[in-house]
Amino acid sequence: MILIIDFGSQTTHLISRRIKDLGVKTHIVLPNQAVSAIKQYQPKGIILSGGPSSVYGKDALLVDKKIFDENIPILGICYGHEVLAHLLGGKVETGVRKEYGPETLTITKDTSLFKGLNRQELVWNSHFDRVVAPPSGAQITGFTPSVSVAAFADEEKRLYGTMFHPESHHTTSGNKILSNFLIDICGEIPTDQKINREEIVGSIKETIRDDLAVCALSGGIDSAVAAVLTYKAIGDKLTCLYVDTGMMRLDETEQIIGMFKKNFQLNLEVLRAEKEFLEALKGIIDPEEKRKTVGRVFIEVFEREAKKLGATFLIQGTIYPDVIESKGSQHAQNIKSHHNVGGLPKKHGFKIVEPLRNLYKDEVRELAKELGFPHELIWRHVFPGPGLAVRIIGEVTKEKLDILRKADAIIVEELKKAGLYEKIWMGFAIFAGIKTTGVAGDERKYGETIALRVIESKDTMSADWVRLPYDLLDKISHRIVTEVYEVVRVVYDITTKPPATMEWE
Ligand code: XMP
Fold first, then answer.
1. Which end of the chain is flanked by fewer CB atoms within 10 Å, N or C?
2. Active-site residue (options: 82, 103, 121, 167)
């Protein structure tokens, strides 16, 4: 297995995911756990991830030099590359501006890491500082127009660094570089990493035995798969609770209940709590406060009911990125607090079971397919935990929610009709909270603005807006202003992430 030391990069999971796809196990740990994790897991290789800090920062995140004593091959990526240079006698220089995007790497020396690559390769950069001298004993193996030490290698010590991100799909030969590291340098032998459903069900059964369990269904695929696997393990001893927050898309609650009733026999209770959520959200305009409020009320409503059932276990659809984020967020910059991560207060009195905690999203989708989930649920676009509350700029009210829901349903319907829905990451409407002037008949009409956000992404960390055909944009816009009376203006968001995030809040 390969140990990944997480310095807080947004792409640490991508590294892990790519390695899993290449048939090798990984384990992600924080820098201060590195030495003990090496003893415990005896990894065949170590990867130092990227991260937002600077090696010269006041609280620079570094790693114990003892990791270099074990003669284990090491690959440093981006900040990890800087850490290697900084700790091993090279030099890092503080940048003057952030370098972000594609660059051409010119390979100047043949090494095992770059075996089979062209002299020039397209690579993906995202950094501020840069390495200007490699570690002592290491040689420069490549440069880009902006960085003279874009890669280095010490073949004898099996130590490698890349300023760019081989895990990014924009780095054309990224997989080849990772596979060279895993197989040729670390000596890993790839094996089938396919998930074993029966094993998961068996382990749930073993844990819960004769006790009772509850599960919160969110409408998303993770909690749904966790619930169905648990149902297979313990049958009627599981009760699923679905909290209708009032922040869902048009008819979503009914669709979810209908889908569960039709496909699975499990006990499902629906808690209608729209009023409670709207009351709590009154007057709140700050996005983070909205998130925290929705999270808090959710827990209150859920706990109240769950306690009545007398359950000992709480089933959660936590997947691997959530597990790491809730532990590792101390180093990653907190861009948004995702309320489904670590949202439960510590003293809730339940024993937690997380059947999917070792899996990535695409593996959960695979399981869902095997379990017979309808295609529509599996491919439904990602929806934020706080729901439409973070798609309304300004205070959340029932009226605004209803307007937004109608506009959103039109976008989704038109994207589906155009055959584009499953080809993109997300397509949705934002209630911009800006009133502008329009005309209706001969009268002035002061009404709402709806923004369309239709984006493409491969890894959540970056996104581009979709170049929708003008005719389709026209159709969506026309339908919204005619079918949603309160709206007088529709605009299209043409911003990439970064600098914008996908959601507006
Ligand atoms: P951003 O807006 O951060 O979104 O670019 C990245 C992805 O995460 C989703 N998202 C959330 N999911 N709780 C969630 O469960 C949240 O608070 C939240 N905020 C954003 C977003 O929909 C997108 O797919």
1. N
2. 167
**Residue 186 annotated among the catalytic residues of the structure:** no
Could you tell me the distance, in angstroms and rounded to a whole number, from the CA of residue 385 to the centre of ligand 1?
8
Domains of the chain, first to last: 2-185 (3.40.50.880), 197-378 (3.40.50.620), 397-492 (3.30.300.10)
pLDDT at 8: 87
Q: Which residues pair with 389 in a beta bridge?
A: none
Percent of the chain with pLDDT over 70: 95
361 Cβ closer than 6 Å to some ligand 1 atom = no
Q: What is the CA radius of gyration of the chain?
A: 25
Q: What average pLDDT does the segment 183-198 reach? A: 92
Q: How far is the CA of 80 from the centre of ligand 1 (A)?
A: 27
Instruction: For ligand 1, say whether the CB of 142 is within 6 Å of any of its atoms.
Output: no
Say how far residue 469 (Cα) sits from the centre of its chain: 28
The tens digit of pLDDT for each residue in 438-472 reads 998 888 999 999 999 999 987 677 789 999 999 99
Which pLDDT does position 342 carry in this prediction? 39
Pick the more confident residue, 4 or 17.
Answer: 4
Pocket-testing residue among 336, 341, 501, ligand 1, by greatest number of atoms within 8 A of Cβ: 336
Predicted confidence band of residue 337 (pLDDT cuts 50, 70, 90): low
Q: Distance (Å, rounded) from C-alpha 501 to C-alpha 505?
A: 8
Closest residue to atom 19 of ligand 1, CA basis:
384
> Going along 230-356, which residue ranges are E strands?
238-244, 267-272, 313-315, 351-353
Is 340 touching ligand 1 by the criterion CB < 6 Å? yes
For position 440, what pLDDT does the model report? 84
For residue 237, give the DSSP letter.
Answer: G
**269 a catalytic residue:** no
Q: Count of CB atoms within 10 A of residue 23's CB?
A: 15
Is 240 annotated in the active site? no
Closest ligand 1 atom, residue 501 Cα: 5
Q: Does any ligand 1 atom lie closer than 6 A to the CB of residue 385?
A: yes
pLDDT (0 to 100) of residue 10? 80
Residues 6+ apart with CB under 8 A from 10: 332, 461
Span 269-311, pLDDT tens digits: 999 999 999 999 999 999 999 999 998 999 899 989 988 999 9
Q: Tell me which H or E stretch contains 483.
A: helix 470-483
- Which structure tokens are listed for 286? 């700050």
- Cα of 384 from ligand 1 centre, angstroms: 5
Give the per-residue pLDDT at 27.
Answer: 93
pLDDT at 360 (0 to 100):
84
